[in-house]
Amino acid sequence: MKVITPVDEKTVTTAIIERGAKALLDLVKSDVIIAGAGPSGLTAARYLAKGGLKTFVVERRLSFGGGIGGGGMLMPRIVVQSPSHEVLQEVGVRLDPYSKGVWVVDVAESIAKLATGAIDAGAGILLGVTVDDLVVKRSRVCGAVLQWSAVNISGLHVDPLAVESRAVVDCTGHDAEVIAIASRKNPDLKISVPGERSMDAVTAERRTVKCTGEVAPGLWVAGMAAAAVGQGPRMGPIFGGMLLSGRKVAEEIIKSLHR
Ligand code: 48F
User: Fold this and answer.
1) What is the residue with the minimal CA distance to atom 15 of ligand 1?
2) Quick check: is 72 in a domain?
3) Structurally, how many domains does the chain consist of?
């Protein structure tokens, strides 16, 4: 058996602080900050990073995947339909054919591979951090205000830190949390979150993708947050709209920032 390399506590602590601080410094200025590591956020991150943009996903929880893990009423499967299956195929998720143009996929595999796809493309994912607010100057979103989720949960008064980015994407799901905060604080941005409508899966999938895009200068929306902003219906455990929405927002941001 090989001998375990002895590493003392001081080395562990120094390594973590040195390299952790370096990783956080890298976040200070980026092209795109995505709030939320659910299916739409992870998909957007992969295409944005592939498109050459410096991209970070900031996720409140200590895990990624958002609503994927809950499957349909905790059954470990979700459904995707054509052409969204291509997004999963590209990251190697195995598709179980169910009916014409419809596939069933494993939730754990989807979470793992969507996240790996984003990371391998070059995107960073920061866990345990909440997008608390935005940096807004002359009616333009220029960055995100970040806070440790643990601080928010504790209720302690700790000032957050702000990072600069050319685009911020709200992929926070049903509450469109970032846009909701921005709309309360910045009437000049002329945005609102009327919320989603009751379930209608077919309409919802189309509408989510349609409502994806830039909602105010520098502020973008994708996934379920787009349905909440565009008053689209909810759709339950069919995820094609989330993947296509993530891809669409990335394509539009790439076009806009490369212009
Ligand atoms: O909810 P979520 O999975 O959003 P999505 O990508 O996908 C929606 C589907 O999962 C499902 C559905 C489709 O059938 O209806 O709900 O639109 O992922 C949102 C992620 O954002 C995180 C949250 O923890 C979750 O992982 N989040 C929420 N608010 C913040 C946040 C915030 N302010 N800052 C950072 N992360």
Assistant:
1) 236
2) yes
3) 1
The answer to whether position 4 is within a domain reads no
Which residues span the domain enclosing 128? 9-257
146 touches 140 (CB < 8 A)? no
* Number of the ligand 1 atom closest to the C-alpha atom of 61: 24
What pLDDT, on the 0 to 100 scale, is given for residue 214?
Answer: 98
Spatial CA neighbour of 85 closest among 73, 75, 94: 94
Query: For 132-159, how does the pLDDT look when each residue is reduced to its tens digit (9 = 90+)?
Result: 999 999 999 999 999 999 999 999 999 9
Tell me, what CATH number does 236's domain have?
3.50.50.60
Please measure the distance between the N-terminal and C-terminal CA atoms of the chain and give it in whole angstroms: 57
pLDDT digits (tens, 9 = 90+) for 48-105: 999 999 999 999 999 999 999 999 999 999 999 999 999 999 999 999 999 999 999 9
Strand residues in 68-139 grouped as ranges (E): 77-81, 96-99, 102-106, 124-127, 129-137
Instruction: Tell me, rounded to whole angstroms, the distance of Cα 40 from its chain centroid.
Output: 6
With a Cβ cut-off of 6 Å, ligand 1 is lined by 35-41, 58-61, 66-68, 130-131, 171-173, 177-178, 223-225, 234-237, 239, 242
Q: Is residue 1 part of a domain?
A: no
Task: Categorize the per-residue pLDDT at 259 as very low, low, confident or very high, splitting at 50, 70 and 90.
Answer: confident
> Considering the domain boundaries, does residue 183 fall inside one?
yes
Residue with the nearest Cα to atom 4 of ligand 1? 173
pLDDT of residue 108: 98
Centre of ligand 1 from the C-alpha of residue 22, in Å: 27
